[in-house]
Inverse folding.
């Protein structure tokens, strides 16, 4: 079933972040929410995921299981990279290993988060979301901190693993949307 947002409004105190925002995302579609910081893109993902509720408007989201790649890494500090994936995503060790290899982290599978760089943590974060087997994947600036060549390779991996899934990508970089084969780009003002 599609994700349907109809006249969504959300404010934080006096600041209106979303006002009468409407959007429909079809099953298996990949869309990009593009724009500058503070425009409401992350707020919209949080509403879709149920992290926060809109002040008004209607959300229909019978989109199955959702994985969310947050801007923050949110890795468990007491377990290594592979265990961060298996513990959070409920997947097999084999899938965690496969994804860490695909994320170019084969030598760091048993490294703890405090010994990983920001870009490495982000790739574990991406692998964890892909491992969950969700029908819908929400991505909030998932490729930040990656150099351009690595970013292109990781996006190709994400593209492959997201085949048939609904994807909503938040980014400031139109090139990321193009590399991920987003079918629509919605520009926030």
């Amino acid at each position: 079933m599609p994700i349907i947002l109809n006249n969504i409004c959300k404010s934080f105190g006096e600041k209106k972040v979303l006002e009468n925002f409407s959007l429909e995302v079809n099953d298996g579609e990949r869309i990009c929410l593009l724009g500058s910081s503070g425009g409401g893109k992350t707020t919209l993902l949080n509403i879709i995921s149920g992290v926060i509720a809109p002040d008004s408007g209607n959300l229909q989201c019978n989109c199955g299981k959702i994985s969310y790649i947050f801007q923050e890494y949110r890795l468990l500090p007491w377990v290594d990279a592979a265990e961060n994936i298996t513990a959070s995503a409920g997947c097999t060790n084999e899938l965690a290993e496969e994804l860490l290899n695909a994320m170019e982290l084969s030598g760091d599978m048993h490294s703890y988060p405090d010994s990983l760089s920001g870009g490495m943590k982000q790739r574990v974060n991406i692998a964890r979301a892909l491992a969950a087997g969700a029908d819908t994947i929400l991505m909030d600036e998932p490729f930040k901190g990656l150099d351009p060549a690595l970013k292109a390779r990781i996006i190709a991996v994400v593209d492959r693993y997201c085949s048939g899934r609904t994807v909503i990508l938040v980014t400031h970089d139109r090139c990321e949307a193009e590399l991920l084969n987003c079918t629509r780009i919605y520009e926030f003002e």
